[in-house]
Amino acid sequence: MNFYKRIMLLLLLIICFEVGAQTDPVLMEVSSVEELIRLTRTQNPDLKSYLLHVEKSNYEVKASKASFWPQITGSFGGQKNFELPTTPVPGDFFGQPGGTVDAQFGQEYAYNAGLNVSMSLIDWQSVLKVKMAKLTYEAAEAQQAAYLQLLDQQVHLTYYSLVISKQAIALAEKDLEIADSIASLSEQKFREGAMDALAVNQAKINSNITKQNLTTSRQHYQNSSNDLKLLLGLQVGDSIHVSADLNYELPPKYSPGALGPDEEIRLASISAQQAQNQVNIQKSLFVPKLSLYGYYGKQQFREDFGIDFGNNSWTNYSYLGLNFSIPIFTGFSTQNKLRASKMDLELAEYELNQVNLKFQIQDAQLIEEYHSSLINASLALEAFQLYEKNERLTLQKYSEGLISLDRYLYAFEDYLKAENAFLNALLNTYSFYSQIIPRIQ
Question: What pLDDT score was predicted for residue 8?
């Protein structure tokens, strides 16, 4: 009984150890957006599927080239002839000159074993199929590049959103400390009869606004942290710590010419090439094919069932042939498929032109909106810094008894509005910047 108890205890300890090992949280330290991008390139769960598609397409290219190599197969077969074929032969062989005799040749059982060899000499359809496989490989690479571009944009946006939220939390915590102290002081003065209810209410309003700002900033920070976990393939219990700060820094300007082509344009271009190649494949169905085939082996004939592996039991049997084939009539299917492929080509070229036009307009609009956001963010920063100075000056004057408390409360309210306006403008600017920076040439 003690033995079984020890076994159960050991199993329980192993299970607890495995569960504990699986639930150990991970703390990831990130110091820059560049480091975060490097991490997502190796840990993003969705990126693996694109890598596998590229690898698969590479093998498909290699498989398509197999048509250029000889095809060799080994074969072994046996045959029982229930009725031997009858062939008319000259009667001279049977002492009956001047006529023919129906003679049967062969034996009841026949066996053969050997190698079949075939090789295409002229086959434009196989050549074009290799090209199509290469285009499919290029398309897989372009899809991977398009996802990497989108991934970089998401990483930049989430990273800057998290950093700005962290900065907003620090400001809100400082503002809340001031707002709570002023609210407590105003209530005390109201009880003493030195302040009216209007000023007390304004102090409470400012305190509530700072609490709302702090709660909102913390939620934004948590949302950005969760988004980064998804991009990095982390678990719910894992955490990310970003040590970088923006310190009110604005990103640089970029001209429209600095943007590289969007990866969607490359994808549309490859689709048009695939459509053109498909037209060529359909045209190749009208072209003759030339192939070489041959056989080298042994054969054995017997009157009874069985098989013999003696030296003289098998006779050589081999041949070499050349096959030339040309399509004459296919029920109009080839012509209709060619017309359909031409329509696909026309559609692909139209979509390519539309994609080019779309990104020309969108890129110009993106740069314009980015420059406008830079101007607004710069003005909002200047206004925020001025309101911050006014808030400090009014607080100093109030502490010196030069102004009333309600005068400071209105200055603090204006400061909170300017702070929110600047943080929103800063996040808006970096949202445009996150779309631009992965495409900078």
Answer: 59
Contact 292, 118 (CB under 8 A): yes
Read off the pLDDT band of 217 (50, 70, 90). very high
pTM here is 0.80
What CA–CA distance (Å, rounded) separates 210 from 204? 10
* Polymer length of the chain: 441
Flag whether pLDDT at 7 surpasses 70: no
Residues 30, 241: contact at Cβ < 8 Å? yes
- SS3 (DSSP) at 1: coil
Q: CA-to-CA distance for 380 and 425, rounded, in angstroms?
A: 7
Residue 15: which pLDDT band, with cuts at 50, 70 and 90?
low
Residues with Cβ within 8 Å of 242's Cβ and at least 6 positions away in sequence, in order, are: 30, 31, 36, 159, 162, 163, 166
Partnered with residue 440 across adjacent β-strands are 259
- Which domains are present in the chain? 27-69+123-288+332-439 (1.20.1600.10), 72-90+99-121+289-325 (2.20.200)
Residue 63's identity, in one-letter code, is A
- Separation of alpha carbons 152 and 157, rounded Å: 9
